[in-house]
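It is worth pausing here to work through a concrete case rather than discussing structure prediction in the abstract. The textbook approach is simple: state the sequence, then state the predicted structure, then interpret. We follow exactly that order.
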Amino acid sequence: MRSLLLFLALVGCNGGSTSSTTPPPAGGGAPVPAAAAPKGGEVPSVVATWEGGSIAYAEFSKEMAPKMARLEADYLTQRYDAETGALEEKINTAIIEAEVKARGMADKDALLKAEVEAKAGDPTEAEIQDAYNQLSRRLGGKPLEEVRDRVVQMVKQKKGGERYQTYIDELRTKYKVNVALPYPDLPRIPVSADDDPSMGSATAKVTIIQFAEYQCPYCGRAQEVMERVLKEYEGNVRFVFRDYPLGFHDRAIPAAVAANCAGKQADEKYWKFHGVLMANQRALQDADLEAAATTSGVDMAAWNECRKDPAMEAEIRKDMADGEEAGVSGTPAFFINGVFLSGAQPFEKFKAIIDRELGKG
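Step two, the predicted structure:
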């Protein structure tokens, strides 16, 4: 169940691949080290020649460095996820067997029937109706009574999965499970915070730079995780939001301009406007943006005038260019002290990296 939840979380809006060679990020920061030469033999200093010119390996590898850093980070992260998944399965099997023995039960099936199946309970009518409302499109719009058995079974599976995870957490606490598998030391890609909106202390040990947009549903999902991160790491994390509207979302740029124009008046108005848009990502037409501006308490005349300024869209496109240079190709994308994290990841992923940065991991 945990693996399924993680799989569902690791998604984002894909803007297509970036170019095959990515120049070093602009806007300050130390350059990314050149990519290491491939193993298996010496690489000549000059790797291509033609009449009148040549290409040195050092020149080529320097241009490829950001992309290679991402590939290395992807490999290390996927390896860690695979190791973590295998370790958790072994832990869960061990503590369930220990509990079966401690309670003198016949086998693990008897234990799980008593602690998961029995305690998950049958679906209530409210739960069935809520699930049907969410799934009605997938169910072809058929009336509830026609698909009731299917909906009930889906609710039972969901409740059973949630109860199983809760019970595993209870057993982990009882048996004082401690996991010492270290999070990998991932390569870092320097990304400038520029002058974009931020929350948190300027002297925080950890800076999270997010590239995202208002029309991508996964960015809205990630917003909830960011709120938890800022709450649990108050004083230790600074959060910076940079715009990365995707080409196939026609309202993403107008929404970003509207939010930034609110921010021209006051930081708190920007974040209030930002929150309204993230919570209502299907409501981004001009009338919706005007309603959000009113809710955020902006000076409407100044706000409307700001939206006409070409410099506002130019600033957004600068964010996009910086994101592309750092290897961003979809949203949301995060750089945690330069460590790249892609997609609407669960809180635990951020916690693992942040704790390492704070010397706790």
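Step three, interpretation. The beta strands are 13-14, 46-50, 53-56, 198-199, 206-212, 237-243, 330-331, 333-336, 339-342. Residues 1-9, 16-34 have pLDDT under 50 and may be disordered.
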